[in-house]
Amino acid sequence: MKRIFQIFGGGLGWSLGGPIGAILGVAFGNIVHDFVGSSEASASNAQATGYPSDFHLALLVLAARVIKADGTVAQSELDFVRAQFTSMFGKERSNESFKVFKKIVDQPIPLTKVCAQINSFTNHSTRLQLIHFLFKLGLADGHLHENEVAEIKRIAQHLRINPYDFASIMAMFQKNTDASWAFKVIEVGADATEQEVKKAYRKMALKYHPDRTLDAGPDAQAASKETFLNVQKAYEHICKNKGWN
Question: Which of 93, 144, 192, 213 has an alpha carbon 20 to 30 Å from 57's alpha carbon atom?
Answer without folding.
Answer: 144
